[in-house]
Every structure is written in C-alpha cells, then in structure tokens.
Please model this.
Amino acid sequence: MAGSVRILLVDDCEPWRQQVRSILITRPELGVVSEAGDGLEAVHKAQELQPDLILLDIGLPNLNGLEAAKCIRQVAPEAGILFFNSAERRRHQTGSFEHWGARIHPEDTCME
Model:
C-alpha cells in the first residue's frame, strides 16, 4: 500500500468493498489498509491500524455504524469517519446524524 491516506473500508457487502477498493487503488495518494464486515470488527481494526479515514456503513451487523463510530472515537480519535448508507436503509436513519452535530435528511443527499 503506497498511499499517504490510509483507509479502512467497512461494509457487510463484500462486493461493494471490492468495488470501492478497485476505485481507490487508482489514486496513488490513497491506500486501503484493511476491510471489515461488521461494526465490532471495524472497532478492532481501527484500534489496531489507526487509519486516517474510515468509510463506514451505517447498517452493519453486530454493532451498527453509528455505535461503532462512538467506539472508534475512543480507540482511534484521529481517524476521520465518512458515513454512508444504502438508499433502502436510509429512510430508517433520518435524523440519526444529529448526534454527530450534523442534521442530514434524505432530500440533502444525492441518493434520491
């Protein structure tokens, strides 16, 4: 991994992770240090690897992305977290970003 921005990909859908990884490796400044398929694994890998950026799905098994992010803040406080959510799950999550200081509504996203 040659990139200067170290990324942890977290989603329970392995094909999605593979697709995102294939896009990211085209950028020399980015590098995927690891992947995780659930929230608990994400917390453990964040603690172990101390990535610069975590691409974090909200709808994860074992520990959802929002709860995982709370734990990650404790074990890897310097890591940036970029949340994402699939369109079908998004309607159940409206308002859940209020905890993070940002209020995001479906009409504010590009996934209509």
In short: DSSP finds four helices and four strands in the chain. Residues 47 and 76 are 6 Å apart (CA to CA).
